[in-house]
Amino acid sequence: MKSKTKTRRPYIVGDEKIDRIITQLANGYGSGEAAQLLREIITTAIKLGREGGDNGDLKLINLSLKELRYAFRVFSPFRDVRKVIVFGSAKTKKESPDYKLAENFSREIVKRKFMVITGAGPGIMEAANKGAGPGKSFGVNIRLPFEQRENKFIKNSPYLIGFKHFFTRKLIFIKESDATVLFPGGFGTHDEGFENLTLIQTGKCRPRPIVLMEPKGGIYWKSWMSFIKGQLLKRGYISEDDLKLFTYINDVKEAADYVENFYRVYHSIRYVRGLTVMRLKHPLPKWLLRKIKKDFSDILIRGYIKNSGPLEEELKRNEYPYLPRLIMKFNKSKFGRLCDMIHIINKV
Hints:
This protein has 12 helices and 11 strands. The strands form 2 sheets. A 7-stranded parallel beta sheet has the order 4-3-2-1-5-6-7, sandwiched between helices. A 4-stranded antiparallel beta sheet has the order 8-9-11-10, with helices on one face. The longest helix has 21 residues, at 55-75. The protein has helices at 16-29, 32-51, 55-75, 97-111, 124-132, 166-175, 187-201, 220-233, 252-261, 286-295, 312-316, 335-345; strands at residues 83-87, 115-118, 137-142, 160-163, 179-182, 210-213, 247-249, 266-272, 275-280, 300-308, 325-330. It is an alpha/beta fold.
C-alpha cells in the first residue's frame, strides 16, 4: 500500500526568476531554518504586492512589520531577564493609594532581578516606571489623539517603543513578559487582563502568574471577582479550574513573592510532537514525581508524567539542553490545573 504522507506544497511566488532572487537574498542573510523563514517572509511581501489592489493593506503590513522588528531589537538583549507587565488606569492620580502601591511593587520586583514593562503613559504606568528606576523598565506606548503621552520616567529611555496599532503592541506585551500584574483601571486594563486570561486558558500563551492588586480594604477587584464567580462561573461559561489562572493580593512583598516563586523550580514550557515538555531548574524528588503522577493524571490524554532529557527538536535549537524535563501528553484544556501543578512543583 502506498504511503498517504502529505508533502508540503512549496511556498513560492511562482515566477522562476523572482523565486531564485528571493532564495539568494534569504541565503545571504541566514542559514538553515532562518533562511527558510526569511524566504517565506519575502515571498509573502511579493505575493501581497502582486495580489493586493489596496495600498492600505500594504501600509498595514509594512508598518506592523517595522514596529515589530524595532521592538524585537530593543528587547533582544534582555531575553534572559524575567519581566513583569504592569497594567492599570492612566487616570490614576499621584496621591492615590493605587499609584503608591504600583510604585512600591515595581521597586520591590526589580530588587529581585526582574524588569518592568508598562504602556509608558501616566497614572499606574508612570508609577511602575518610577518605582522600577532608570534602566530597569520598558515603555510600550500607543499613539492616541488624547491621554497617552509617555511619562517623564520613561520619556528619554532607549527602552521606549511607540506603536500605532493596538494589536502589535499587545503582541509585544505578551511575548516579552513573564508575569502580569493588574491594578484598577478602565476598559484598557480589562481588555489586557481578559486577553491574558484567555490566551493562557486556550494555550496560546505560556503559563504565567497573573496578579490582581489593590490596596488593603479595596473592593475594585473583589467586585470584579464577584461578577466572575456569580455570572461566568455560575452560568458555566468558565470552569472552577479557570479561577486558578489568577490570584488577588494587596501586599507588595506577597505579590513579588508570588511572581518570583512561579519560576522558582519551573522554567518554561514547550510543545513538541504531541508532547508537553516542562523544563525545570532542577530534578524533582521521587516522592514529588509520584505525587504529581497520581494527582494530575486527569490533565493527560493518556500515559503518565515522567522525567526526560531534552528532545531532539530542542537540541537542534539549543533550547536549554542542560535543564531536566517533565514530559506528558497534556490535554491542552485544563490550563488552570497545569498552573496548579506548577505551584506545587515550586514549593520543593
